[in-house]
Amino acid sequence: LLSIRRVPTPEDIEAAELDADVMPPGEAQLGLTERAAEQLRKVSLRSERADAALRVAVESGGCHGYQYKMELTHERAPEDYEFEHPAVPQARLVIDAVSLGLLRGSTIDFATELIGSSFRVTDNPQAAGPGCGCGVSWEPK
Q1: Which of 18, 34, 74, 115 has the fewest beta carbons closer than 10 A?
Q2: What residues contact residue 38 under an 8 Å CB cut-off, 6+ apart?
């Protein structure tokens, strides 16, 4: 499991006008595979910025109702949670408060296939099933 570096305050959530509560640190849990942590470290080193992180978000859309969005970021919003891998320096995730409610308990992995390599959300306990074949779109429980 990842360590929590930053938790938003109730005031941060309210100011952003989000329909979310501050999740207690014991419930705000995410996993990051060693493979994904190492890839994040490499990406962070290439970006030459110590604040690099993978932003993971959940958006409406896709063939099953929700889809994952991932991008490299150097910015943090007040309503963001920030996580880091306990053993791999510069392996960080940033997730907004609403998305964390839909991702809690998931694992972020890095997969390499013939058609390309990418970060992926796996084992999402909030999902009703594996989702579509592309692994991006999913339906909540």
Answers
A1: 115
A2: 88, 91, 110
- DSSP letters, 48-73, are T-TT-EEEEEEEE-STTSEEEEEEEE
pLDDT tens per residue across span 59-85:
988 777 889 999 999 999 999 999 999
* Measured distance CA(68)–CA(58) in Å, rounded: 5
How buried is 87 (Cβ within 10 angstroms: 0-12 exposed, 13-18 middle, 19+ buried)?
exposed
Radius of gyration for the chain, computed over Cα atoms and rounded to the nearest angstrom: 15
Which pTM value belongs to this model?
Answer: 0.90
Q: Are 106 and 83 in contact (CB under 8 A)?
A: no
Decide if 116 contacts 78 (C-beta within 8 A): no
Which residues have CB under 8 Å from 124's CB, separation 6+? 102, 103, 105, 106, 138
